[in-house]
Amino acid sequence: MTFAELHRIYHQPFFNLLKQARAVHDEHWTDNSVQLCTLLSIKTGGCSEDCGYCAQSARYTTSVQAEKLMPKEQVMERALAARASGSTRFCMGAAWKGVRKGTQKFDQVLDIVRDVSKLGMEVCVTLGELGADEAADLKQAGVTAYNHNVDTSPEHYPNIVSTHTFEDRLRTIRHAQDAGMSVCCGGILGLGETIDDRLKMLEVISNFNPQPESIPINALMPIKGTPMGDNEVIDAFAFVRMIAVTRIAVPKAKVRLSAGRTNLSKEAQALAYFAGANSIFYGDKLLTTANPRANEDMKLLRELGLAPLEPNPGLEAPESMDGVPLSPCCDHSCEKEKASACC
User: Fold this and answer.
1) Is 37 a catalytic residue?
2) pTM (2 decimals)?
3) Quick check: is 334 catalytic?
4) 51 catalytic, yes or no?
5) Class for the domain spanning 3-15+27-308
6) Is 198 a catalytic residue?
7) Which of 174, 241, 256, 261 is catalytic?
8) Is 247 a catalytic residue?
9) So where are the chain's domains?
10) 312 to 3, 186, 317, 329: CA distances (angstroms)
């Protein structure tokens, strides 16, 4: 979708927007299922990047302490517990700039993925920047989806982080797609951006080819010690509007309620589900922040007549749309011999 289309959709009266989003949702998602995903930090803190919202950056003084990569046995314990509690996707995140083939930490991650992939759940990882070889190895090891958010608009991105570029993120997404993995890509609301920035972010995401399999919409949870520690919490109606516009813009994607749900009332979450959200991060903790308790989530789902989605570990990545350019991997000035997946 174009920015002009998204702008028109977003700024219509609230109930008109919800009505339109619900119609799109019902056309593409015929049951009342919600995907339950568990997110585990397998390597916490000590990250060299300077993302202004993140407590895991080594550049900021926060309550998060740097830790080594979690042993495989501990990861498996958490994965088994997640499966027992009803999660159908297990997501593993590591706080570092990226991974490189042939390194010990990447080999350890591949070993973990191989074992987790045997549990009957979808496997998602978020490991920072990827090259083509690393992406292929992750796919072969059993990764279902690769998470790499664009966070905000290309224009606002330099205000958020200086240690990598928006184009770096697009390049990783392209490598993940070329390897045959589904892409999980969304953003964060509350980074000091404008509404236009949010819509420009969604414009980028909606024009990926293939489009993302899932789109997490996060509301910033300001963390003391980070540059954005004093940012205001996003308004619930603004959050629901973005859920609705995301559903309309990418009808076949799972739209995931992610960070920030602890600041949403049950009623606000119900509006988000009605607007097209059909996936949540499930469990008492995300990477480093609190999340609604699992029993509270299950109670709300029952009250709304919703049910957990069945696992699909053999999930195929969305297909490219004929006649539509592939997702960009870098700016248009690059040479193809320097970045073979370049648009």
Assistant:
1) no
2) 0.88
3) no
4) yes
5) alpha beta
6) no
7) 256
8) no
9) 3-15+27-308
10) 33, 21, 12, 28
